[in-house]
User: What shape does this take?
Amino acid sequence: MAEQIPFSDVALATNPEPRCPCVLLIDTSGSMAEVVSGTGRDLGRTAQVDGKTYRVVSGGTTRIDLVNEGLRVYQADVTNDPLAAQRVEVSVVTFGDTVRTVTPFVTTSQFTPPVLTANGETPMGAAILKAIDAVTERKREYRQNGLHFYRPWIFLITDGEPTDAWEAAAARVREGEEKKQFAFFAVGVEGANMDRLKQISVRQPLHLKGYSFKEMFLWLSQSQRSVSHSNPGQEEQVKLAPPAGWASL
Assistant: This one.
């Protein structure tokens, strides 16, 4: 009798390339719906979001609109590199009204950028724990299918601070970094609590310049393309471009 392969493992079984996994951990709290350009018509009322008062308008470009544009840029750039498109895997986890895996791990050749919306608070602690569990499980699946893999990345983007307990997540980040189980990056958009991010991330959190989401996602794509062209286990020797064009410390 032929061996049965679970449907979820088909992609792992049919693509023998080593994997370069990345979780995009994206803040979709209500503040990400703030209009940042092309301000629309004032509707004459206010709304309380994440402890702040906002004027309600129609139209305009919001922070989450720019994130969605960045996701499309990221997907297009990685897939321009045929080898990276088969090796880089991405998962999208969001945290706002709830913590949600919007996109389970797929190679970027199969990745359809989601259209995210913003609402709710900032359950960052729970989201980080979910991302860590996701990379742990994905590495188990790689091993089960005999695939080599690079050190996973968890790439956090937020414009706020945790509205839930975050200490356990910070401890898991420290443990994971020390054991080289994953690399954790944190990017704070205007309004983010950078002091809190420093307590969570071992690596120095980066402050996004303005709303340079597109440039940030392009840097991420180029970095992962570079890593995916190295040999698993040697990725730390890859020299990444500095993020100076889109971020500051």
Observations:
- Residues 1-7 have pLDDT under 50 and may be disordered.
- The first helix runs from residue 10 to 14.
- DSSP finds seven helices and eleven strands in the chain.
- The helical segments are 10-14, 63-79, 82-87, 124-144, 167-178, 194-200, 213-228.
